[in-house]
Design brief:
2 copies of one chain form a homodimer. Chain A is of the alpha+beta class. Chain A folds into 3 domains: 215 residues, Bira Bifunctional Protein, Domain 2 (BirA Bifunctional Protein, domain 2), CATH 3.30.930; 98 residues, Rossmann fold; 68 residues, Translation Initiation Factor IF3 (2-Layer Sandwich), CATH 3.30.110.30. Chain A has an 11-stranded mixed β-sheet, with helices on both faces. In chain A, helix 10 links the parallel strand 17 and strand 18. The longest helix of chain A is centred in the C-terminal third of the chain and has 25 residues. The first copy, chain A, starts with a helix and ends with a strand. The relative contact order of chain A is 0.11. The mean pLDDT of chain A is 95.
Amino acid sequence: MAELKDLTKRAENYSQWYNDLVVKADLAEQSAVRGCMVIKPYGYAIWEKMQQQLDKMFKATGAQNAYFPLLIPKSFLSREAEHVEGFAKECAVVTHYRLKTNDTHDGVVVDPEAKLEEELIVRPTSETIIWNTYKNWIQSWRDLPLMCNQWCNVMRWEMRTRPFLRTSEFLWQEGHTAHATREEAEQEAQQMLKVYADFAENYMAVPVVQGVKSETERFAGALDTYTIEAMMQDGKALQSGTSHFLGQNFAKAFDVKFLNKENKEEYVWATSWGVSTRLIGALIMTHSDDNGLVLPPALAPIQVVIVPIAGKPEQKQKVDEAIIPVISKLQSDGYSVKYDDADNKRPGFKFADYELKGVPVRLVIGARDLENGTIEVMRRDTLEKETRPIEGIAEYVETLLADIQKNMLVKAKAWRDAKIHECDNYEEFKEKIKEGGFFLCHWDGTAETEAKIKEETQATIRCVPFGYEQTPGTDMVSGKPSKARVIIARSY
Amino acid sequence: MAELKDLTKRAENYSQWYNDLVVKADLAEQSAVRGCMVIKPYGYAIWEKMQQQLDKMFKATGAQNAYFPLLIPKSFLSREAEHVEGFAKECAVVTHYRLKTNDTHDGVVVDPEAKLEEELIVRPTSETIIWNTYKNWIQSWRDLPLMCNQWCNVMRWEMRTRPFLRTSEFLWQEGHTAHATREEAEQEAQQMLKVYADFAENYMAVPVVQGVKSETERFAGALDTYTIEAMMQDGKALQSGTSHFLGQNFAKAFDVKFLNKENKEEYVWATSWGVSTRLIGALIMTHSDDNGLVLPPALAPIQVVIVPIAGKPEQKQKVDEAIIPVISKLQSDGYSVKYDDADNKRPGFKFADYELKGVPVRLVIGARDLENGTIEVMRRDTLEKETRPIEGIAEYVETLLADIQKNMLVKAKAWRDAKIHECDNYEEFKEKIKEGGFFLCHWDGTAETEAKIKEETQATIRCVPFGYEQTPGTDMVSGKPSKARVIIARSY
């Protein structure tokens, strides 16, 4: 109960609420290393569920997992001119390979004799080392497409960090594909964006806008960056996954050519795509409330918790007898159930704790329920309680879980859609953006206008959205003609 | 066929055979970074199968997964006196956090202004950072036992590397547990050794000797190191997994205390345990032959390959009709099947390739088989071929896979047991050790004798084996009294 009382309310301070919740729900905490977090077992269990599902979806598209080195030779980063600008700057640099005991024999110092000839960079992303490898794997059109994914850690030396949203080290997956034609590579990049959107909506219950980034916001080295953008409860955008069409940039930088069916040499076409532990941040900030996490059943480490209320041992035994078949049924149907009959914590403490942890369904059964053949059911998303017959309760809970999953997406979508507005007046925009939300505005396509908006409002162009009927118009800032509306928002 | 012909024979050069096989079977290759390998999709698929099974087994013991930072502050390594000696020496050191464009604007250099106040070490193992974290997680006996595991990459700057067996970066899991009593921690360390031995024997089909290391060979910072030792086909030992009882060393170094049930403060008791991608090396070197890999069905990425031999399209269609129900049956029973009907490779090439890749069962079906209602079955472990009725073939293959799994362990065990000898004469030992094998010898328990054996024979004490009836005797080197026989062998 203590934890719950201390949780900051969203309305008071949304940012503090988030930070509090990450710690109090046992998801993650700061480590002794600046900007790096420890992902605690409960937070990691969510990541494992995400990984399992995504991994299946990637493999269904033909991707295979592999593993490439953590450290990248410094010179590799400079091979692709734009890439180096984006990634070589803030990164961890390995310069030595040995420590030695210090003169006072109470510690260790870097051994100056063990200096590397060429410094190594802890990967901020792996295009360079992977394309250097692909050079040896690709000779002919028969070797294409080549589609590898790796689950790994990466490092970007961030100045301001927040758990899951922006940390110096984070976990992610990065897919790197090679294709014989431009069209096929573009299709792959778009297909993977759809996989991410499918995952966000159908597993995370997080509605996303799919679109393409402006040149300014593109991945360093990409010709096109596709993105899924989610809206957090404070109306800010969270870029939740990106898929890049890299053209032949990396193939040219690493000299990766293939013999096509006409026996002519061509450079290979590339994509890369990634999502990270940032998705956990998106999950938290989309659904959770002042009582704690609200997790969608598809990704909840514990889907159903059962708390018995039994004073005397005879009662407990009867409760066990009634509930064990329910647990067995749920587990054999593939659901994750926790029966919390620990007697060193009071039911009230347990209730608050599982609410804080976002367990989708809670069942409570006591002596009176036994007499009546009933059980109390609470759903976390709405906090609604009802009393149901214990007969058939497993089936009821299974239906309820499906309903919660569906309801969470519907609710998040309705909430988000109410905060998406068309806007054609810059003064009005400057007022409204303070309240958050996504703004569909005409843009003249210039970096100047984009920079002006960012400077004056801290908002950025999130993407040119797909699936939105576009008509030409007038840029709200410059008054110049615009081909399409873009989504502008403040973001994480 | 080309690949197979080029594979060195084991009898010619066992070491070269291994290196060749790793590359030719598409398991791994050297990367551009010294001592670091790229794990290719086929090799990684074996690692994924290992991970899935081990992860289940760990969770069944109550361990949970978590993630701790890659980088460790240099000073942490010096906190535990023995640990620093073992691990602080050869490791990758991060000294800077930024690069900048060089003066000639054609590359990047380390920015001297971005020097870290305290250097960070790429984790060689994570006891220090984890125990620094556990300090905040453990206050009372109620917080114990705490059992976390992490799947991650680690780095040790090795001078001489070999794929899977010894690489500068490798993938592993490291379990770190905290307990209220010495007994419980010792039991945990022993239990995890049993889990590793169970996995090695029942999934990898690799028989192992379980035992405890001598003080010299112990993990740096441990009171006891338990080990599983496998014998490779050249008679050398491969340490395949270790589990350490760490006493209170790390608890004291990081000041991790708890209030016991009597409300008194005590230091926590610790274990750690790990296996790595080295297991893939053990798998290869235990079973494979001059034709390539031999993989146990439990860990084979492809368990059954089906090659149709059909000249004309009508034949191909009939073959498809006959074989698709077999594939469906196998897949729905959870088996991994590949139907290789690619028409740009000849059957002979495919046969050699799947033999090289160690696929346990190969089915071949052609026009004549169709007429006779038969199919050809080959088992990779013995290379035996037989013709079977196609009726009931799926069930037959399932039984065969189980038989192959069993047979591989029996064969490996028989082979190994024939190379385990008692030896009481040092001169005889010096001769025999040249042929490889495990030698059960009396040892006086001194580091001097151990060092002498190592220097004169390159063999080391692998462990004091469990489950071997021990009687006192005389050390074969020093002539001093010995309490027990140890296993001495050359090793990887």
